[in-house]
Amino acid sequence: MRFAHRFRVRAPLAAVAEFHSRSASMPAITPPPMIVRVHAAPERMTSGDEMDFTLWAGPIPVRWVARIEDASAEGFTDRQLRGPFAAWAHHHSFVRADDRTTDVLDEVEAELRHHPFWWLAGALMWIGLPGLFAYRARQTKRLLASQ
């Protein structure tokens, strides 16, 4: 399965890359009623780092461990090592539009697990991706505008 979302933020590329490299940014751009609790992650994520977190989807906790790959000023990939999907890779790309504007492209490739519970959990999460990424775009724009 593949999903893509693109938005433009009024912030320079370096500010967008810095914002997305901070582990604290993930809870800040996660929509309610979901809650993210980070258990372990460096403050600033670079290639090879891992983030261990629980995503609360209502009353259901989903533990997730992701590794950061190919981190640069132009983006990075977070790949699920442990979590609700059989496979998950989220590619974040940042493209300079001009000195004060950056395009953010999110591309997700995933496979559902064969276990009935995790298949359903993953399918429901997948269906929610358009809303999740629309919220993330709004929050990213709001938070970067306040910097």
Structural notes for this entry:
With 147 residues, the protein is α+β, with helices and mostly antiparallel strands. It is built from 4 helices and 7 strands; from the N terminus they run βααββββββαα. It has a 7-stranded antiparallel sheet. The N and C termini lie far apart (35 Å).
Number of helices: 4
The helix/strand order is: EHHEEEEEEHH
The overall strand count is 7
Our measurement of the CA-to-CA distance between the termini, rounded to an integer number of angstroms, reads 35 Å
Beta-sheet strand percentage? Answer: over 45%
Whole-number mean pLDDT: 95
- Cross-sheet strand order for the largest sheet: 1-7-6-5-4-3-2
List the helices and strands and how they pair.
Layout: E1 2-9, H1 13-21, H2 25-28, E2 35-40, E3 50-57, E4 60-72, E5 75-82, E6 85-98, E7 101-112, H3 116-127, H4 129-145
Antiparallel strand pairs: 1-7, 2-3, 3-4, 4-5, 5-6, 6-7
Features:
47% strand, seven-stranded antiparallel β-sheet, 147 residues, alpha+beta
What is this entry, summarized?
The protein has helices spanning about 15-20, 25-30, 115-125, 130-145; strands spanning about 1-10, 35-40, 50-55, 60-70, 75-80, 85-100, 100-110.
